[in-house]
Amino acid sequence: MITLIKRILKSGWKNFSREKSLIVANIFILVLAISTLTSLFILKDASQFLISSIEEKVDISVYFKLEASEEDILKVKDDVAKIPEVKEVKYISQEEALVSFTNKHKEDLVLMQSLDEVGVNPFSASLNIRAFEASQYQAIADFFNSSTLTNLVEKVDYYKRKPVIDKIFTFVSSMNMLGIAFSLLLIIIAVSIAFNTIRLAIYSSREEIKIQRLVGASNWFIRGPFLVQGAICGFFAFLICLVLFSLLSWIFGPKTEFLFPGFNLLTFFLVNFWTIVFIQLASGVGLGVLSSLFAVRKHLKI
Amino acid sequence: MIKFQYVSKIYSHKTAALDNVSFEVKEKEFVSIVGKSGSGKTTLFKLILAEERPSNGRIFFDSQEVQKIKTKELPFLRRKIGAVFQDYKLIHSKTAYENIAYAMEVIGASDKEVKKDVAEVLEIVGLTGKANNFPIELSGGEKQRVAIARALIHRPEVILADEPTGNLDPYNALEIIRLLLKINKSGTTVFLATHNKTIINSLEKRVITLQDGKLIRDEEKGRFIL
């Protein structure tokens, strides 16, 4: 058994080192396939990051009547925080609302003069509420429509923002679906190209496989070296991809922050280094070995 | 050792490559099979190697019915046979040494045995100096000698030689036949297919004649008559 394994490994390595042009073509195609898979892994995280930052910007505000006391509002805040759909609640007092408005419009003299003429703070206290998902805002808005709160609440701006919120989340969900479909398509294309290239390379060896069968070689004795060759091709393709992606992350890492604020490719690469190594090694060696396995099988029927 | 019982091989409705052929080859025999191109010689060898299955009839090798052997068990049958083909059928990505060694490696011989036996066989076929050459770097005669070396190295029970001299000049053809006779003398059954009249007439061994797939003559110390 050990002799058999040793011979298979030796023969696989010899085939690899002798059939240079075919091997270069196989490695090149595997590099493309692995690069596609790695890019999809990175893009999945980058787009998730983008989607999260869009989602972070969505919230609803509940404005309270001027006569509502801070104590009552804080009680409502505590009750809202207990709703499972609520991710975050922030209380903005009348004073904070005034300061925020003043800071925002201090250049606008007409507005500032009007505020002075009013003489009192016209702003309502409010709660800024963020839900986990877009579909949950309706339930939160309904909570404020309950009879016990109508005497405290002035208005809920959900109904005004609803079309925008819906649009954003339809877009996000469409992007997610499109991303999955596009990724699947790319994976299928990459795997098919790699499989067919290896299949063609093995097809050119069909006469040799036939001779090996006629000489009395068992299927594993014939198949083994092709699997080893496929694995070696996959391993070299993995090494090339790892170097390639390390360089790209190092060169373009800081620049990706312009595209996706807060997302640095180099940091992502370093944090997920072992996952990327696993994806590249498994896809390279896996594709090489499985493609060879299926491609050889066809010629072993003699 | 090899027995054909009413064997026919029909490739299409109109062409019968072999038609109701029966004969038996005994151990240590040297049998030549003659016939024009297309008479069914190669088909007959393909049937023995189970490369093809007969349309009718039965083929026995060592009392084992060949067409009943399962695909995964075929290597065991083929290891008992050394085949020499007209187009050599050498593995182009392997050197002469590796091509010959391959037949021993498939039967699980040790590295030491492989090294010793390949060196010996290379010497027998006069190719010691060409051991590391690839088939593309060898002449027709040299390729055929590598093929014979590969066929005999694992000491098969029978050697099937299909037109082994077909692509060779008379000098090399004679060398190959001398080699086959030597192998036969050492106790291996040799089954030779050829349409070389001079060779057949000089051998004075058993001759089976095929014509249009039919066995028309089977003579001890036969001659080439077509």
What would you note in describing this structure?
- The complex is a heterodimer of chains A (302) and B (226).
- With 302 residues, chain A is an alpha+beta fold.
- Chain A folds into two domains: 2-54 and 170-300, no CATH class; 66-151, 2-Layer Sandwich (Alpha-Beta Plaits).
- Helix content of chain A is 75%, strand content 7%.
- Chain A is built from eleven helices and four strands; from the N terminus they run ααβαβααβαβααααα.
- Chain A has helices spanning 2-18, 20-56, 70-81, 94-105, 109-118, 137-144, 158-203, 206-215, 219-259, 265-271, 273-297, and strands spanning 60-64, 86-92, 126-131, 153-156.
- A four-stranded antiparallel β-sheet of chain A has the order 2-3-1-4.
- Chain B has 226 residues and is α/β, with parallel strands linked by helices.
- Chain B has a domain at 91-154.
- In chain B, 32% of the residues lie in helices and 26% in strands.
- Chain B contains seven helices and ten strands.
- Chain B has helices spanning 41-48, 74-78, 96-105, 111-124, 140-152, 170-185, 197-203; strands at residues 2-10, 16-25, 30-34, 56-61, 64-65, 81-84, 158-162, 189-194, 206-211, 214-219.
- In chain B, the strands form two sheets. Chain B has a six-stranded mixed β-sheet, sandwiched between helices. A four-stranded antiparallel β-sheet of chain B has the order 2-1-4-5, with helices on one face.
- The model of chain B has no long low-confidence stretch (mean pLDDT 90).
Can I get a quick summary?
The complex is a heterodimer of chains A (302) and B (226). With 302 residues, chain A is α+β, with helices and mostly antiparallel strands.
Keywords:
heterodimer, A: about 300 residues, alpha+beta, Alpha-Beta Plaits, 2 domains, four-stranded antiparallel beta sheet, elongated, B: about 230 residues, alpha/beta, six-stranded mixed beta sheet, about 25% strand
